[in-house]
Amino acid sequence: xxxDILIVGGGLGGVAAALGACRAGRSVIMTEEFDWIGGQSTSxxxxxxxxxxxxxxxxxxxxxxxxxxxxxxxRDNYPLTEGARAWGDLNPGAGWVSRICxxxxxxxxxxxxxxxxxxxxxxxxxxxxxxxxxxxxEGDTVRxxxxxxxxxxxxxxxxxxYVLDATELGDLLPMTGTEYVKGFEAQSDTGEPSAxxxxxxxxxxxxSVCFAVDHVDGDWTIDKPENYDYWRKYQPHFxxxxxxxxxxxxxxxxxxxxRSFTPNVDDDPLAVDADQRKxxxxxxxxxxxxxxxxxxxxxxxxxxxxxxxxxxxxxxMDGTIIDVSEEEKAKHLKSAADLSYSVFYxxxxxxxxxxxxxxxxxxxxxxxxxGTEHGLAMAPYIRESRRIKPVTRVVEQDMSYAVRAEKGxxxxxxxxxxxxxxxxLHPSTGGDxxxxxxxxxxxxxxxxxxxxxxxxxxxxxxxxxxxxxTNGCYRLHxxxxxxxxxxxxxxxxxxEKRLNPHQxxxxxxxxxxxxxxxxxEGIEIRWPDIAAY
Length: 533
Fold this sequence. Notes:
The protein is built from 15 helices and 21 strands. It is an alpha+beta fold. Helix 1 runs parallel beside helix 4, helix 1 packs parallel to helix 13 and helix 2 (about 60-75) packs across helix 4. Keywords: Plasmid.
């Protein structure tokens, strides 16, 4: 098969890249190895992590269209209460982690709708479920990528002028010989205050296999998981108690904190204030990542709230899945799933209740919400990818408030987007605790999307030129979308102008022209400077 642009990976970055390239009139093939496109928001079951000002500014126009589309889908198809229907910034789940917590199928439906016209016009072809297995490279140019069907083993070779790596782990980087890094960089290399003395390439953030639960009458206890006894005794040295428990380090202070858990707490969803400046919102785990608040809907429509479990105790720290054999990767992903089942079983049978009892046998695993028969999320939640060795590397001191203070984050001449989140690193496979650093609103430099050598491969997700540290604030939903959208537009722009991406970044005239195109398409490249005029 052949297209102008091949996008390997259909997560948030891949979907946004397809939109950006298709809007520019290019033929696109996008692949995805799971049954759902949308990555973090859908198959990985993670409500959107966003900054405080997301309802006013700081995201791309198409990402705002996605968020507005999710809200409109609820208004068009769900029996909302009058109060919820009138809520302009409707938060269907009234979760505390995000201003818009929603069921993954709704996010999926809206993303599919955003792509539908391009598929109908023949401009976009989506190959599912396919994953990359090999690449043909000539010099500094990727000629083609071989894709294998997940179930049948059939293979397709796709040739394209530009290849975008939107996979969750940067799978194309080793296949194409593109230079990359992984894990912790050394402080002597990056100068980052939070980096270790020596590089630790196999020390990466934990993966998590999320799942959805509700709480209804009856006994829904699952069989005791095979490795439950192992996980029941598991206690990281920095944790403050067993991993299967409500006590864990507070990400920002590292003090041992005990969270509460109260199924179907009778709160007012309209009173939820999901403002990340006020804390992470995980004090009550039931409310933290709730995706359906029953009181937002007609009385009796939902038997229970529905919550995503992406909590500290499901972080899998026993090994990395990057640059290991397929057998080793499968072993770790199975163990991560075993941990999640064990957490769920512990919640059902042993978790301490406020009334002095143990366990919540009315907890029900909602595989129908995550689209699986096994009950867990369709795909593991990947926080950290391989990362290109870029033209411009983003380091901690570029946006750390402790370093930059009131100067704010570094301004890049080649900014192609903006983002904001605390530098938020989960425990890692090397046995490290949380790293959480106050961050300034930052820009995304085009140079971070450019490999130093390879000319026609563009990262379109978490595999851009950040470090282990700065990945902690560049990995979130709106930034991944922004990166992907720009990657798709960059490839289309280069085809139109007969340039390569490095020429666009290096030449002031070309860069200014491309940035003007981004702005015209609703991509904010500078944070607002609000002052009298």
